[in-house]
Structures are given as C-alpha cells and as structure tokens.
Design brief:
The protein has 311 residues and is α/β, with parallel strands linked by helices. The chain has helices at residues 2-55, 160-169, 227-234, 237-265, 272-283, 295-308, and strands at 64-81, 88-97, 100-101, 105-110, 114-116, 120-134, 138-147, 152-154, 174-175, 186-189, 196-199, 204-207, 210-213, 218-220, 223-224. Helix 4 packs antiparallel against helix 5 and helix 5 packs antiparallel against helix 6 (295-308).
Length: 311
C-alpha cells in the first residue's frame, strides 16, 4: 500500500509539472501572438499614416482637414529631433490589446514633414489639418494633429479671420466658439484665463507654466498668417520648439538657394543683403522668444519681392 501510494504521488506530481509546462507554453504562445499582431497592426498603421502624410499638401492660401481612423485604441507618438541638416520627424504607434498597451513600434521618419501635436495623442479617430508656412517665402506645410476625443473651442475674443478658418475646417473636435462647450472641452481664450491662453499683442500661447512664442506675418490685404499660432496651441513646448528649429533650418537653406538664383539671373539684387540678414538671424536663433526679431526682416523681404517675384 505504501509503495502504491508513493507511485501515485509521483504520478500526480509528474502530471502537475507537465500541466504547468503546457500552461506556461500556451500563455507564452498567446502573448507572443498578441504582441506580434499588435506590432503588425502598428506597422500597418504607420505605413498608412506615411501615405497620408505624403498626400497632405496645400496651395498657397488653403487650409485642409483630413480624418484618420484606426480600428483599435491607439497612441500616436510624435518625436522630433533637430540634429544634422533638417532634423527628422518621427512617428510611432502603440495599440491597446486586452487592456495592455504595446510597446511603441512601426516608426516612420520624415525629413520634410512638420507635425505639431502633443508628444502622445490617443484615440481611434484623429484629425490632421494643414496650413502653409511662409517666412517670407513658402517654407513648408505645417500639419496639426488632434484626437477626435479631445474637444477644443475658441472663445469670443478670437479674430474673425481665425473663426472663419476654423468654421471652414468643419472638424468635429474644434469649434469656432464655446457656446456648446462642456467640462471636458479645452477652451482656447484670447482674453481672460483658461487652459490655453493666447495673447495676440505679445504673440505668445500660455499653457500652465509653459510659454510658446509665435509671429503672425502679414499675408497682404490686411490678413495675417496664423500658422505658428495654431502650432503653439496644439503642441507641447518641447515639440513646438524642436519643429520650429527645423523650420528655420529649412528657411536658411531656401534663403541660400534664392541668393544663388540672384547671382545666376542677376534679378532681385536688392534682396541679396536682406536674405543675408535673415540667414544671420537664423544662425543666432535660440528659441521661440527670438521670433519677434524676425518680423521686420520678413516683412521687408516680402514687400521687396512684390516687384521682382524671386519666389
């Protein structure tokens, strides 16, 4: 009896060990499958976004909005670096599967794209709207990313030009006024105190302890270019400052190209010294608080170019 009991005990122990191994292998296999599926989904999303990015172009006076849907809850990570040349725009994805976020993967990078958003934007539906940035010539199209889950509204102090532009976007998460705002709506105010404060006299956006400076160059006919204001509103400080430096790197290279064009064609000779001054200012640029010093130079270049049409 003792020998039989001993054999039975060993049999049960062996069965428990084998069962545990099978269970662990099953859990490992399922986890591996989930992770692989999540990574494949992230890569597919990144490729889809890359195609969308390449199609986001504007005319000189247009602003466009494009929705972007993903089947599962997703975080889009916006990473910017300004090292070497024009720097890089990097985007990666993380998806929520069985209440667990996958590691960021599917990274795509661009040298000629400028995405303004918070470092991480979460949801299933996202919006991109695009505006051209001229300084004084067209430098690039700026892309602004928001989640459909994040609701924004502009208060009564918003300039008519901005209100009209926001209305024309017809983007469901950004309202041109705050008449239907609720507690979850992020208010953008141009007078008074709120979560995002815009000061058009001193040209800055204030969010908590962070201050982001912008400029609004004249476009002509009394209109202004608010592209950098939008960038400051919808970005965190680190992303905004990094993308701004990348834009100025590109501005400098374009200015050098236009100077070369002057030497070849001998047209627009009165612009050469002003382009040199703009390049020098960019070389001494530190952060957005320096932008105000560019205003006169940019306006001068724009006015002089009206006669020669160098760009």
């Amino acid at each position: 009896m003792k020998k039989a009991q001993l054999n039975l005990s060993f049999g049960w122990i062996f069965a428990i060990i084998v069962g545990a191994v099978i269970l662990l292998l099953t859990i490992y296999g399922v986890t591996k499958f989930i992770n692989t599926s999540g990574q494949e989904q992230d890569i597919a999303g990144a490729k889809k976004l890359g195609i969308l990015f390449n199609s986001l172009e504007t005319g000189p006076e247009s602003v466009t909005s494009t929705p972007f849907k993903i089947s599962s809850e997703t975080k889009i990570y916006n990473t910017c670096n300004n090292f070497g040349g024009f720097g890089k725009q990097k985007i990666s994805f993380s998806t929520l599967t069985f209440k667990k976020w996958s590691s960021p993967s599917g990274e795509v990078s661009f040298k000629n794209r400028y995405l303004f958003s918070n470092r991480s934007v979460q949801g299933k539906k996202f919006y991109f709207f695009v505006k051209p940035f001229e300084f004084p010539f067209k430098v690039a199209d700026l892309v602004y990313l928001t989640s459909a889950e994040d609701k924004y509204c502009f208060d009564d102090g918003v300039p008519d030009e901005v209100k009209e532009e926001i209305s024309d976007l017809n983007q469901e998460n950004i309202a041109p006024n705050c008449s239907e705002a609720n507690e979850q709506t992020i208010e953008i105010c141009f007078s008074g105190t709120c979560e995002i404060e815009v000061n058009l006299y001193k040209n800055y956006v204030k969010k908590g302890d962070d201050t982001l400076y912008f400029v609004t160059p004249e476009k002509g006919f009394g209109e202004k270019d608010y592209s950098l204001m939008y960038a400051a509103i919808f970005s965190d400080k680190k992303t905004y400052e990094c993308q701004l430096k990348r834009l100025l790197f590109r501005t400098k290279e374009l200015a050098l190209l236009y100077k070369g064009k002057i030497k070849i064609s001998r047209e627009g000779l009165n612009l050469e010294d002003d382009l040199t001054s703009l390049i020098t200012q960019i070389e001494h640029y530190n952060d957005s608080s320096d932008l105000k010093g560019f205003t006169n130079q940019v306006e001068t270049l724009k006015q002089k170019n009206e006669n020669v049409k160098l760009w």
